[in-house]
Write a structure and sequence with these properties.
Rossmann fold; 6-stranded mixed sheet; alpha/beta
Length: 352
């Protein structure tokens, strides 16, 4: 497929390229969702929130339920409608015009969660809710609080709240496999336990066009963003085992940051091409296409399925335009813990 062709859940957009025309980049449906494995009677319901950046088409194909998150602009609170009322380019262009602009995001309240969970309880199917990572938001604590209240009303109802310990397209890859495992016959409890282990095998590496959004949100000092801009410093980031952002390194220039992402992919990829990869960007399609082309140069990855998606406004409000990430299944991320972190895990009884 052309390097400027994007496989989204809804469409293909083609342009000129330096790749052969028969290189397959597949939509999310064609990657996996067309398999009969996904369309068998399922043991449980799966609910996600809009921070997972799963397109409406994929939600429909996988029969997933969605809780939309909200963000606050200078004009007021806005519900994430998955680009129904504006395009990603329109959203991110606002930040390009005003680098100091910052949108805040809102955690889902326990009351709202209780409404969603009570509706699921009335339907009776065992349910798993996949939250925004606890490393980024307090939403999961509100979800757990609501789940506790619900169990008092419906003591026999199976409800599991999962912290994915990753974000955006990484959650999409995890949820796709959760749906497949449920369709293959795993019970709700087994799918939850499967996900509790599998979440540490999903990797994501990304870079930002600038540090402005992080500075506007108070995550780094404004002076650091200014210096970084003058020196053309581009961070490479990932997430730790709690799902919080972590700095992998800094690069002089965008291309070096993108090459560093590919190097991390080479080091950590599972080499299981039966599982799709994902590339997600914040209005940075050219760089997303470059990552796609470079992945296909890795031996064995010539025909791997890659899902292309867009960072939604919830996470996009914090990273700003130009973010691009490569997400894939790889080695156990817990193996890379420092010595002191491994000791801490043993103190906690090896709990996730």
């Amino acid at each position: 497929m052309p390097s400027d062709t994007f496989a989204t859940a809804d469409q293909f957009v083609s342009a000129e390229s330096d790749l052969s025309a028969d290189t397959p980049v597949m939509s999310a449906e064609d990657v996996a969702l067309g398999s009969s494995e996904f369309h068998q009677p399922r043991s449980c319901r799966i609910i996600v929130d809009s921070s997972a950046d799963i397109s409406p088409e994929v939600l429909k194909r996988l029969d997933l339920e969605l809780i939309p998150l909200t963000y606050v602009t200078p004009e007021g609170e806005v519900t994430d409608d998955q680009w129904a009322t504006q395009t990603p380019h329109e959203f991110y262009e606002v930040f390009r015009k005003d680098p100091k602009l910052h949108y805040t995001t809102c955690a889902i309240t326990p009351g709202r969660y209780l409404e969603v969970f009570e509706e699921a309880a009335k339907k009776g199917d065992p349910t798993i809710y996949v939250s925004l990572s606890g490393g980024l938001s307090s939403s999961i604590h509100n979800a757990e609080q609501a789940a506790g209240m619900l169990r008092e009303q419906y003591p026999d109802f199976e409800l599991y709240v999962l912290d994915p310990c990753c974000d955006s397209a990484a959650v999409e890859l995890l949820v796709i496999e959760m749906a497949r495992q449920a369709s293959k016959g795993l019970t709700a409890r087994e799918v939850y336990e499967w996900a509790c282990e599998s979440r540490y095998f999903v990797h994501g590496f990304f870079t930002l066009e600038s540090l402005d959004a992080l500075a506007a949100g108070g995550r780094i000092p404004p002076a650091a963003a200014q210096v970084g801009g003058k020196l053309d410093i581009k961070p490479e980031l990932s997430y730790d085992t709690n799902g919080a952002l972590t700095l992998c390194g800094v690069c002089r220039g965008r291309k070096k940051a993108l090459r560093s992402i590919i190097e991390h992919f080479r080091e950590s990829y599972s080499q299981d091409t039966s599982l799709p990869l994902a590339i997600v960007s914040a209005d940075a399609e050219k760089d997303a296409a470059w990552l796609d082309a470079q992945v296909r140069k890795v031996p064995g990855c010539e025909h791997v399925a890659i899902i292309h998606s867009t960072v939604g406004p919830i996470l996009g409000s914090h990273v700003g335009p130009g973010m691009v990430a490569l997400v894939f299944w790889g080695c156990d991320r817990r193996e890379k813990l420092s010595l002191t972190d491994r000791i801490a895990r043993k103190v906690r009884g090896d709990r996730a």
